[in-house]
Amino acid sequence: MMMIILSQQYNITVDEQYLEWQSAQINGSEVDAIRSVCQTLSNWNIVGIVGPELSSETPITAEYGEKVGIPIVSYSATDPGLSNRSIYPAFYRTVPSDSVATIAIIKLFIRFQWNSCIIIYQNDAFGIDGSNAINNAFNNNNLTVVNQIMFNIDTLTFQSDLKTSSVSSSTRIVILWASSIYTNLILQNALNAGVVGPQFMWILSTSISLNSFNQSFYPDLTGILTIEPSIAKYEPETFPGSTQVNSYALFAFDATCFVPVLSYVDYTGWQQYHGGSVIIWPGQSLSILTGNAQLNGIKLRIGVIPSDPFTMVKIVIDQYGQNQTQLTGYCMDLISLLQANLGFIPNIQLAPSGVTYDGLMGMIPNVYDIVVADTTVTPERREVVDFSQGFFSNAISILILTNPAVQIDLLAFLKPFSTGLWLLILDNEELKEQSIISLCAMSVWYSYGNLIGYGAGFDLQTGPGRLLTAGLFMLNVVLLASYIANLASDLTLQNSQSPISGLDDIKAGKIPFNRLGIQVGTSNEDFYLTEISNNQTNFYPLYSKQQLYDSLLNDIIDARPFQP
């Protein structure tokens, strides 16, 4: 309307006629938009169309304008796809596209050293294209979109649970890309779910009206930023010239007070707004928000499971004579260290008796917020919960019962040499006239003496005799060394015999599968089913470590792979 008045004031005409106007209400419908355009064109000499307002209504109108040869000028449609001149050559707009706003958001994140966000968008052209533009810009600038939550404008519901998706995320910055008619509704849902202030900071694509919310929510709205296009005002005498004027400027507003605090121009970036106030961040804080999930002052339900030496349970008697459960161990020390550094309030809860490690994972987040335990990271568990970096490394060990009854062989010292070699010591012609007992005794005596160097001396008279004697001495050394080495090897093997040497032996069936104990609900069960038995539950089930030891001692099982 203002454009029409100004054209008449400055005598601007088309074919020597003043500009007039016709308006049409299209109610957000593309069909209504094209119907209104057709009716108006059939009754009036239309030279241009101002509008539509929404990005979802604009594409069909812009295409129609190109077909009939009239320009379409929108004052609020920001869909980046409308900038494609090959598809919409007759479309113009007086506001920057969402691509420009995306650049401003990227520089805002860089300015405050934020690195991730959640995007909430409405499921139409405006929301989807805007979300894609932000996502692409984040990827190009090494920033992360942790999650994208779609708001269905037909059912007025979220694609996924808003509270669960927000609380479980590692970031606390939310970018809401929605029209003004849906922004208030989405914010109200977020307020009801408790995912606005003071733990979360929201960046909106449009302004909101505080009158839409109960005053009790006002403190939670503190720190919300809105990013909107703003057009500078110039008087003719102060107009600096078209080359000095940027076509857009974006402002970030503190939603509680609705005052500009930062201004953005493409060639200068974000600057403190002249005359603006300081930014009051969520929680009435003047410190810049880190953007990451904070635990300071937050109560955490921490689940632990008995497992020596990580979590040890001891019953003590307090000063009132009552039995109290005392928890000690490495996990308790780790929780205390984390509490000192992060400032959370721990509520440590011992898992009920009989709960397995897999069952412990399933109790997050309904029963526990986090679990601190000697838990193995497996792909199946990653599908249910997230894991921190491991605080210790472990491998699968096989626990077997050693054989306490070691058989002692009194003739083991004879094994290094063959029977024929031992019989040679009896082949002595000089003793053939002796009795059998004397023959054996003297033969053993001379052989033993020569082996250890105690034999009778030789009366050496010639060189060949000396050479032969040296050869005999060398033979004694070789025989003695060979005897000792073979005897030590035989004794070592006898003491270290084991039915299996590793998992390959278990896979090969060297131990019957029904005599292999597996603790139910642990990573060992998952590994056994997927890597050994081809998902056949043919092992002996165990439900506690005490049952494991009892089963080994009572000869119910032979071995058990050990890992939590």
TrEMBL record:
It is found in: Membrane; Postsynaptic cell membrane. Its main location: membrane. It comes from the Eukaryota. GO terms for molecular function: G protein-coupled receptor activity; ligand-gated monoatomic ion channel activity. Keywords: Glycoprotein, Ion channel, Ion transport, Ligand-gated ion channel, Membrane, Postsynaptic cell membrane, Receptor, Synapse, Transmembrane, Transmembrane helix, Transport. It is a multi-pass membrane protein. Residues 299-534 form the Ionotropic glutamate receptor C-terminal domain. The keyword Transmembrane helix applies. InterPro entries: ANF_lig-bd_rcpt, Glu/Gly-bd, GPCR_3, Ionotropic_Glu_rcpt, Iontro_rcpt_C, Peripla_BP_I. One of its GO terms (cellular component) is postsynaptic membrane. PANTHER family: IONOTROPIC GLUTAMATE RECEPTOR. This is Ionotropic glutamate receptor C-terminal domain-containing protein.
